[in-house]
Design brief:
It comes from Listeria cornellensis FSL F6-0969. This is Zinc-dependent alcohol dehydrogenase. One of its GO terms (molecular function) is oxidoreductase activity. Keywords: Oxidoreductase. The chain has two domains: 124 residues, Quinone Oxidoreductase, Chain A, domain 1, CATH 3.90.180.10; 127 residues, Rossmann fold. α3 packs across α4. By secondary structure, it is of the alpha/beta class. The protein has eight helices and 14 strands.
């Protein structure tokens, strides 16, 4: 099969189209004929070598952590899926990613693509959607009526986090540039703070949950706006300063996203179809391009 691989760490010029072995389904696995994937920060970070210590794999490496397509082969012991099913997933983290014609995926990681969702839309959901869901609900235990601050609301994770939090009945605050304010309010944000002109720490208090996607000084300042004793800061970037958390009597936690859907399957309301908005800013042909 054809795939986009890297054989060295570096810039986008390292992306190369190559012929590689087509995967075969083992027990508990399926092969998915890829219709769409997406590009996430982890892709360029791995490509440039920033994640080498965490993912020290031999070359060639196929990037890609979002899959949307049609099952072409089913392995032994797979009973819930069949050839022809339209599925999407965030596969396990291996050097055999989804920038390819086919991808090997563990069956428990699959979810059905709702009828009203395109392959492009489906491919934009798994990694970002699971990241947002697990931060807000599995780790922060966000409740209806609580105030949540979501940093960088216009990003892939942020746009889904806003919708999930709003759907859960939370009061949603986000940081973004003014040009994205109207768009984010359409998604469900109750307040949009222009980070270019306003320091969120100067205008917010008594926030129940902060979803930190930035780290650094933004993470430190986020403790200032949290409620004492019950506030929770959940980061996907860096470990929060536990001394600051202790002083504030709050909880600070960093986590790594899991590939398993679990309760997050309701992201797409599988019984009734996707009710949110997944935004595809542009379509890029994976094969035959170096524009990733």
């Amino acid at each position: 099969m054809k795939a986009v691989v890297i054989e060295n760490y570096g810039g986008k010029e390292e992306l190369k189209e190559a012929e590689v072995a087509t995967p075969k389904a083992g027990a508990g696995q399926v092969v998915v004929e890829m219709k769409a994937t997406s590009i996430n920060p982890i892709d360029w970070k791995l490509r440039e070598g920033y994640l080498k210590q965490m993912m020290d794999w031999p070359f060639p490496i196929i990037l890609g952590w979002d899959a949307a397509g049609v099952i072409s082969e089913v392995g032994a012991d797979v009973t819930d899926w069949k050839v022809g099913d339209k599925v999407f997933a965030r596969p396990e983290t291996t050097r055999f990613g989804t920038y390819a014609e086919y991808a090997l995926i563990d069956a428990p990681l699959l979810a059905k693509i709702p009828d009203n969702v395109s392959f492009d839309e489906a491919a934009s959901i798994p990694l970002a959607g699971l990241t947002a869901w697990q931060a807000l609900f599995d780790h922060a235990n966000l409740q209806a009526g609580e105030k949540v601050l979501i940093h960088a609301g216009a990003g892939g994770v942020g746009t889904l986090a806003i919708q999930l939090a709003k759907n859960a009945g939370a009061h949603v605050i986000t940081t973004a540039s003014e040009k994205n304010a109207a768009f984010l309010k359409e998604l469900g944000a109750d307040e949009v703070i222009d980070y270019k002109t306003t320091n969120f720490a100067d205008v917010l208090t008594d926030v129940d949950v902060v979803f930190d996607t930035m780290g650094g000084d933004i993470q430190k300042d986020s403790f200032k706006v949290l409620k004492e004793k019950t506030g929770r800061l959940i980061s996907i970037v860096s470990e929060p300063d536990q001394e600051i958390a202790k002083e504030k009597k709050c909880r600070g936690e960093k986590y790594l996203v899991s590939a398993k859907w679990g309760p997050a399957s309701s992201i797409c309301g599988f019984n009734g179809g996707w009710q949110g908005k997944s935004h595809c800013w542009c379509d890029i042909p994976i094969l035959g391009t170096r524009g990733l």
